Amino acid sequence: MDGFALDWADLSQLHVVARQVAEGLYAGGHRSRQRGSGIEFGGHRNYLPGDDLRFIDHRALLRHGKLLIRQFEMDTDRSVHFMVDRSASMAFASTPLGTKYAYSALQVAALSRVANHSGDPISLSWLGASTTPGFRPSQGKEAFERMLASLAETAPGGDYFEDSEDWNRSLAAVRRWSRPGSIILLISDLFDLPTHAVDNLASLSASGRQVVVAQILDPAERDFQFDGAVKLRSSEGNIRIETDSLTAREAYLEALRSLAQRWSERLLSSGGNFVRATTTDDPMATVLAILSAIEGRRP
Hints:
Layout: H1 11-22, E1 39-46, H2 58-64, E2 68-74, E3 80-85, H3 100-118, E4 122-127, E5 135-138, H4 141-153, H5 166-177, E6 183-188, H6 197-206, E7 210-217, H7 219-223, E8 229-233, E9 240-244, H8 245-269, E10 273-278, H9 283-294
Parallel strand pairs: 3-4, 3-6, 6-7, 7-10
Antiparallel strand pairs: 1-2, 4-5, 8-9
Helix pairs in contact: 1-3, 3-4, 3-9, 6-8
């Protein structure tokens, strides 16, 4: 899809582009049980040595003359909890296609539409300025409209260096709102997050939640597209560096690779998943990669 930059003054454009991205995707690729009281009968299968004898269907044995095991399915929470980075670094853009925040917001809008189509509740919490109101899990058209309005009305500008407790507040909200079976999706460039952030998310994944992290970068950040002498200023923390691009490139790219590897390996080891994308990637391809990661397939 070409030309996905958005005019954030016009909320209707987010509606249109989110619909274009979401249409054609498989909505409902996971089981969503909104009713029931904990356990539902899920059919039979043949008995295997070592199966719990309590679940042998004796009536089926009398009718069919063979041992069959009754299977059950647990009702699980399939709400989707979005953690969206709105720190100042997400405002960076080296191409006319738009900022990392705009690309991330489009992903969240499209995925919210998919969740809405499946009947799954959605929630939102912010990173980089967690005092900005998010909202608890809710579902239906009203929840989707609230998500779009929140994305459109919020601009990147938070600074992790000014608020060291930002991550802890956002994580605490997600812990309160999520239960085993729910999906937690963090969309961020991962710059300047606390070192323990990945361990926090991995622990949620190990406790039965499906955790996916999508790292969104600008192409200039991914490839360090600078030549000659450069003056670099951090988006957060007011750090300034003057250096030569040849000297800095190798160390920078290695640090970036190590960051992604640490997050990916830690999440995968606990049952989570990790996706990387840039703001020039086809938004639909990125949505598909995130949906595949949610279903447990490596992108």
